[in-house]
Design goal:
The protein has 278 residues and is an all-alpha fold. The protein has two domains: 144 residues; 134 residues, no CATH class. Helices cover 75% and strands 3% of the residues. The chain has eleven helices and three strands. The longest helix has 37 residues. The two termini are 26 Å apart.
Length: 278
């Protein structure tokens, strides 16, 4: 059933979400072409515009997904959605799966866009592509290091998945009858409140949950069973004379799993028990 729902959702969102994503390469390709052929003034503008389009792909996709979720679940199309003879959890997980696919496509656009930017710069400078890519790789590794780079990739993937779950739940809870007086502002208020709540919890988890990642030394990239509290206390006590930070707390990762599971349960419960169409 989820497969049939997903297929229908792809067709229904073709003119909204997917058409919006198609606009990203429509901006990037001409912009980077101007950079590659080294057009005076326009080449520099194209470089900036193309990078902005590439970086904006995921945020733009998330906004379009939120609008699509609200429109098809609680707007005028919500009446059609709710008469489909399936449980609310099937609708919820179908929406999440579709959102994940869209987000991965947007992430791919970002990576392709950055690759094209490097290629266009190489063509403009008449430099071999291999040298350009090697220089770009060296710049990234010298800035954050290989262990931290992989940690950032994993952390961003976990954060993206959490945002999708949280977004769907916030929209569903915000559409409940008890928040009807707030209209479309309810999901925004709930989303902001959840954001600050998670920021506080994440800091506490990084400090107190005994789980960290070694970022310096020969064992960089290895897991350590310590939080960051002792290093933070040492940094506050010694000030500028404090030793260099050797590990970073990653206790927020299991926190994302726990809170994400609770939010998913709440989202399903809201759809199945408290749906209120606009």
């Amino acid at each position: 059933m989820i497969g049939a729902l997903l297929s229908h959702h792809f067709r229904a969102s073709a003119r909204t979400v997917w058409a919006g994503l198609a606009a990203i390469p429509a901006v990037m390709i001409p912009a980077f072409a101007l950079l590659a052929i080294n057009v005076p003034v326009l080449g520099g503008i194209g470089s900036v515009l193309g990078v902005i389009a590439a970086v904006a792909a995921v945020p733009a996709a998330l906004v379009m997904l939120a609008i699509d979720y609200w429109r098809t679940m609680y707007g005028r199309e919500g009446y059609f959605t709710m008469i489909i003879p399936v449980r609310g959890r099937a609708l919820y997980w179908t929406k999440l799966l579709h959102a994940l696919i869209v987000s991965l496509a947007a992430t791919a656009l970002t990576l392709v866009g950055l690759f094209l930017w490097v290629v266009a710069n190489g063509i403009a400078a008449r430099a071999p592509l291999g040298e350009q890519l090697a220089g770009f790789r060296e710049l990234i590794l010298s800035s954050v290091g290989s262990p931290m780079l992989w940690f950032l990739v994993g952390a961003l993937a976990a954060q993206l998945l959490f945002v999708l779950v949280a977004g769907a739940t916030v929209l569903s809870v915000g559409a409940e009858e008890r928040f009807s007086s707030l209209g479309g502002g309810a999901p925004i208020i709930l989303g902001v409140a959840l954001y600050f709540f998670m920021q506080v919890l994440s800091v506490l988890a990084m400090m107190f949950v005994p789980l960290g990642l070694q970022v310096t030394g020969a064992d960089a990239g290895s897991i350590v069973w310590n939080g960051m509290l002792s290093e933070i206390v040492e940094a506050v006590r010694l000030g500028p004379e404090a030793p260099e930070q050797t590990m970073i707390g990653i206790g927020f990762l299991p926190l994302l799993v726990v809170v994400g599971a609770l939010l998913a349960w709440k989202g399903v419960h809201s759809i199945e028990r408290r749906t209120s169409l606009r």
